[in-house]
Write a structure and sequence with these properties.
By secondary structure, the protein is an alpha+beta fold. The protein has a single domain (12-140), classed as 2-Layer Sandwich (HIT family, subunit A), CATH 3.30.428. It contains three helices and five strands. The chain has helices at 12-17, 63-84, 129-140, and strands spanning 25-28, 32-36, 46-50, 88-92, 108-113. It has a five-stranded antiparallel beta sheet. Strand 1 and strand 2 (32-36) form a beta hairpin. The radius of gyration is 14 Å and the shape is globular. The protein binds guanosine-5'-monophosphate. Guanosine-5'-monophosphate is lined by residues 12, 23, 35-39, 94, 100-103, 123.
Length: 144
Amino acid sequence: MSLDGTYDDGNIFAKILRGEAPCAKVFEDGEVFAFMDVFPQAKGHTLVIPKHSTGRNLLEVEPQALTPLILGVQRVTRAVRAALNPDGIMVSQFNGATAGQTVFHLHFHIIPRWEGVALGRHGGGMADPAELKTLAEQIAAKIS
Ligand code: 5GP
């Protein structure tokens, strides 16, 4: 999907937000929702999405949704650090299929990194749901 287009509320993140699809939830407040990526590129790969935006990407998101979203990203990134003690944390966001975007509801990736551990493939293997649930609980316990 190119940078031009319209929001499709049948996308998987919209379904997760409506409770129509399962996820390992980490955190939510009135504006943002965080959950584990089911095809993680590293242990603890977490996604943060706005709850009320129909922006498919950063270019389209309503300005008023951006501040709570990025504050949510910072809050969850701090919790990931506190829970998993990584050596570094990659925060990324793709706009358009050509840039690597596969789900067209704006989202930020929070990907912990450890020295000597290679980054997994984008869209690689599916994680064990029980393991994701445990990680989600560990990260949720460190949200402050
Ligand atoms: P994008 O490629 O659009 O930047 O990121 C979409 C992310 O959503 C990918 O990292 C992919 O692994 C993840 N993803 C795709 N489908 C699902 C799903 O059904 N549940 C969860 N939790 N993550 C998903």
